[in-house]
Specification:
There is one protein chain. The chain is mainly alpha-helical. The chain contains 5 helices and no strands. Helix 2 packs antiparallel against helix 5.
């Protein structure tokens, strides 16, 4: 039972990390210092996607599931939990690259907006 709870905790943490990577720029807009954690998280996540690698949390979750008596899964986190809903046929190399580009684009727009807002405040104030 403990292993199953730990596996579920890894899934929740993994999902939180993905959400932070995609939308963490909005947190940076409120608390600028979070950028020191957000930028490396984005770089890490995009590098994993563009290399076609598997995040280390996926094998950890699989191992914990096995210890709990359940079977692990062969695909990565995005395939299992995110893309399975969006792309039932499975994750392709092209979709991984596209996801990486989307993450960079979303965060570039958010950081541009944060920069413009900060610049406007300095100009006015």
């Amino acid at each position: 039972m403990v292993w199953g709870v730990l596996a579920s905790a890894v899934v929740v943490g993994h999902a939180a990390f993905v959400l932070f990577v995609v939308l963490g720029g909005l947190v940076v807009a409120r608390w600028g210092r979070v950028g020191w954690a957000h930028v490396p998280a984005v770089v890490w996540a995009v590098a994993i996607e563009w290399r076609g690698a598997v995040c280390p949390l996926t094998p950890l979750e699989n191992r914990l599931r096995q210890l709990a008596g359940a079977s692990g899964y062969s695909e990565d986190f995005l395939q299992r939990y995110v893309l399975s809903a969006l792309y039932p046929a499975g994750l392709t190399r092209e979709s991984q690259v596209a996801l990486g580009v989307a993450v960079v684009a979303v965060n570039a727009v958010i950081y541009w907006w944060v920069w413009r807002r900060a610049h406007a405040e300095r100009t006015v104030g």
